[in-house]
Automatic annotation (TrEMBL):
Lineage: Bacteria, Bacillati, Actinomycetota, Actinomycetes, Kitasatosporales
Source species: Streptomyces beijiangensis
Signal sequence interval, chain numbering: 1-30
One Gene Ontology term of the molecular function aspect: endonuclease activity
Name used for this protein in its record: Endonuclease
Keyword Transferase in annotation: no
InterPro entries assigned to the protein according to its UniProt record, in alphabetical order: Endonuclease-I, His-Me_finger_sf
Keywords annotated in UniProt: Endonuclease, Hydrolase, Nuclease, Signal
Length: 275
């Protein structure tokens, strides 16, 4: 057979094989909710666009924000005491089921070391609870979508500071930085922080008896219901897209605890659409 015919035959064979694979490999559809709260399991491969987000798809700007607020406001609320055990599941170390991963430091620490002493981990409010003065009230004060385990000392250093770039290294902070008016988390969770803050701003719009939480582009917000800097948070969302840990955490909260989702984990591009 001439060489040109052989090449033609090989090309046809490759095309046929590719078509066969395309026809036989199942396409991804909206997955069912996770049946286990095990955070080491792979998160459901779905965007929930045809179900959970159906009323938001195709919208942008303020219309998208309003639609998402309605969607995610339907949630099961838990108590502040219940947050302890929930975090032991949502933030379980994928490599060690006896530990949790601390948000800012990135360290893996025993689940049993939860408390308020040196060497313990406690419940970090990523949207600082003094920004809007909601404290630990059931609702924003107990919302798992912005509560994370963190070393007691590192948590104390962050305090209620706004988020921004720059500062000096935080002791045992995993690369986090701090200055007099802002905190910069380690690179691996900058996007996580941004998406948690913006979730809170969409979820809490002044109803439920709580303040209307909003991001702004300044620091030193004090007890006002604002957190900055928005421009930096948007940058972090772009630079650090959702990873498997964050996606699985979102799924576990949805399937097992609050039954609502952080839409910016599922659709990080919605940050730019709204803000």
């Amino acid at each position: 057979m001439p060489a040109s015919h052989i090449r033609h035959w090989r090309a046809l064979t490759l095309a046929a094989s590719t078509l066969l694979i395309a026809l036989t490999v199942p396409t991804a559809t909206a997955a069912t909710s996770a049946t286990s709260a095990d955070p080491t399991a792979t998160a459901a491969v779905t965007t929930y666009d045809d179900t959970y987000y159906a009323n938001a798809i195709g919208k942008s700007g303020s219309a998208l924000k309003s639609s998402l607020h309605t969607i995610i406001s339907s949630q099961t609320k838990i108590s502040y005491d219940a947050v302890w055990n929930a975090l032991k599941v949502t933030d379980q170390d994928p490599s060690n089921s006896s530990n949790v991963i601390l948000l800012y430091s990135g360290k893996s620490r025993s689940k049993s070391l939860n408390g308020g002493d040196s060497g313990d981990w406690n419940r970090e409010h990523v949207w600082a609870k003094s920004h809007g003065d909601f404290g630990t009230a059931t609702g924003p004060g107990t919302d798992l979508h912005h509560l994370r385990p963190e070393d007691v000392a590192v948590n104390g250093i962050r305090g209620n500071l706004d988020f921004d770039n720059g500062g000096s290294a935080v002791t045992n902070g995993g690369g986090s930085l701090v200055d007099s008016n802002s905190f910069e988390p380690r690179d691996a969770v900058k996007g996580d922080v941004a998406r948690m803050i913006l979730y809170m701003a969409v979820r809490y719009e002044g109803g439920d008896g709580f303040a209307d939480l909003e991001p702004d582009d300044v620091v030193n917000n004090g007890s006002n219901p604002y957190i900055g800097r928005l421009s930096v948070l948007k940058q972090w969302n772009d630079e650090d897209p959702p990873d498997a840990f964050e996606e699985n955490r979102n799924q576990v909260i949805y399937a097992t605890y609050q039954h609502n989702r952080n839409p910016f984990v599922d659709h990080p591009e919605w940050v730019e659409s709204i803000y």
